[in-house]
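Side project, low priority. Logging it here so it doesn't get lost.
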Amino acid sequence: MSRSGNRETEQERILRLLATDMEYAKDGALPAGMDEVGRGPLAGPVVVCCVVMPTNPLVHYVNDSKKIAEHRRSLLYDELTLASLDYAAGWVWPNVIDEINILQATKRAFCEAFAAMKLPIDDVMIDALMGLDISARQHSLIHGDARSYSIACASIIAKVTRDRYMQEQDKLYPQYGFASNKGYGTVQHIAALREYGPCPIHRMSFIGKFI
């Protein structure tokens, strides 16, 4: 809420998110934000984005990616990747998820995203996860994608990156509805699994109770 008691404006909301990031800025170095998407689906990779965003210009309507309509997420993705000082994605594929479990796969994707960054990073803000094997100070924030500007930016970039991949996979395996369900266990997806069996991007460790 704003000081006047009126509803918080978009500018005030973005500045509030940015203020969280500035708590972790040291000696003029901005922290990176990191977030993942794809821990829960029955198919497809888990994807993590690491991003460093400038304090000016700020991109409005940044939020937890799950709270943003798909069309707006796509527009924000273009704005964010253009405005960012640096960003990178880490991917871990279904066969690896099956081999090492989803938690370890998610941690690996975080590490890969961090390792792919070209910009030196001293501090990383992470949505909830802790204990990554990376060479930076780690700051874990519960519900970080709703509290931090850079984590929210990372959540959008990761979400759109993975969604676009799943839309491409839909062209190869149209029977599962990946373009709409993005690999999550919808009624349509589970029915297709039972009728056709799994395809190469399904996580075998996730689908045993459905087939």
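Brief comment: The beta strands are 32-37, 46-52, 86-92, 123-127, 137-141.
Revisit when time allows.
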